[in-house]
Amino acid sequence: MTRRPAARQAGPAAAQQINSVIDLWLGEQLRHRRKALGFPLQEVASACGISVSLLSQIERGLRSISMRTLVALAKQLKLPVDALIRNAQNTERGRKNEGAVVRAGKHQRIHLDNKGILKENLTPPAAPGGVQVYRAVIEPGGSTGDALFFTTPGGQVGYVIEGQLELFVEKRLFRLSTGDSFYYDGLTPRRWRNPGSTPTTVLWAMGPKPP
Length: 211
What we know:
- The longest helix has 17 residues, at 21-37.
- Helices cover 26% and strands 28% of the residues.
- The chain has helices at 21-37, 41-48, 52-59, 67-76, 81-92; strands spanning 15-17, 108-112, 117-121, 132-138, 148-150, 155-162, 164-169, 172-177, 181-185, 190-193, 200-206.
């Protein structure tokens, strides 16, 4: 008998668009630093001349950050802006000078510590534009959060290498485990979490945006 994922209501369908992986990474760095210093959103936003709403969206990866705002935030949070920019460029574009092979341990990584997620870009620089392959390691209880999100158009296929995954797609919940695969379009509202007691590893392949 073929096993089918369980499905049920997954809560409100309101979703927010994550602008890009690099915006998510920068937002995480700024949020971690602000909290480590004990600064409230209002204080940092006011000091940098931006709204609390904008700062909140930046920290969650929902808005791109201008260079002027990044410099102001880095100064307020006592962060080396040059290092932030360099790491961001390496994460997003540093692979351009490499070739068709990326050796083990050399893939670009993004740590989303407060979410319990390590994301690794496995795509060699020579791959055709728009094709991306990622590996995500999700710690027990790790998740993208309670809110649904969506990204950009294009098909996305996932494969659970090991562990368990709860995948919320719009109003449905799929309970996945080792060996299961799934598909959705990038514009589909979704969220996911690891409900198990061991790390979950998922491989994602993302196709180019449609013409």
